[in-house]
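forwarding from the other thread:

> can someone predict this with NAP?

sure thing
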Amino acid sequence: MSQQYPQTALITGANSGLGYAIAQALAQAGWRIGLVARDPRRGQMALERISAATGNGALALFIADLASQAQVRALAESVLDRFAALHLLVNNAATAFRQRRLSPEGIECALAVNHLAPFLLTLLLLDRLKASAPAQIINIGTRIDTALDLADWNWEQRPYRMLAAYGQAKLGMLHVTFELARRLEGTGVRVNCVFPGVFRSNLGRTDGAQGFFWRAVDRLIGWALPTPGQAARGVMRLILDPALQINGAYLENGRPIPAPVQARDPQMNQRIWELSLRLTGLQ
Ligand SMILES: NC(=O)c1ccc[n+]([C@@H]2O[C@H](COP(=O)([O-])OP(=O)(O)OC[C@H]3O[C@@H](n4cnc5c(N)ncnc54)[C@H](OP(=O)(O)O)[C@@H]3O)[C@@H](O)[C@H]2O)c1
């Protein structure tokens, strides 16, 4: 662990829900934190609330719409400028869209935000994480049993379905988590994917994408669901528990859970890694 700097983390989607709860818990534990938000006002409000609640003055706000790869690249540059060390990257931001929408690069937006943005951000920050080792990357996943359609990853041939597109993008993230873990062996940097459970969420609301599914969940069982603060405990365990020195795992509450069949195939992991390199202009 670098003695020169306090522990430093970057959290995407830190203005709301799970990302906010993780940022608050880390701020309470005295970490220096970069909060990534797409809306300056929502981001600033979150920063001020966390700072007031925890007394932590080492909070920095970064603004980026993760649908845009140009903005992801600018975000990485500005993080590298401001943070000489980086010990933790939490790729938490995600969303869902009721209708197919394209990113500035012409990529279906759920895939762009939920998979390609964290992939690109991680690779652009990887040397800094390695130089700060021991360090870790936590990808926030979901638990939808699906397979990524390599022949139609951009939803040009099939009718668009919000939950399927969300699930496939999250599966892309799981594939590259497994591939990156193999590549990181021996570097002092670990990467895992965490399913935080189902909890009260704003997911998709700001995009007007809160379709029937989320409204129904909200109305029927919303009151009974855990809060984002409760959901953050599983993630905090992975960050703070020295006994959990795990790499390349898919976890819920610190325990491995089975991945969808397609993600257990290392050759598929590698094919999706290569597709992701191509789609982010890294290859
Ligand atoms: N809630 C659940 O039951 C559940 C279950 C499984 C997994 N998860 C995962 O948990 C994570 C957090 O979700 P949550 O429930 O806490 O939802 P949330 O409150 O809506 O938080 C999502 C965050 O992502 C940000 N975001 C969305 N699109 C963005 C974009 N284009 N650029 C930058 N930031 C963007 C949102 O910003 P805005 O506030 O500006 O929209 C928000 O800060 C997600 O990865 C989700 O897939 C949630």
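The helical segments are 17-28, 40-54, 69-82, 109-131, 162-184, 212-221, 228-240, 266-279. thats all i got for now
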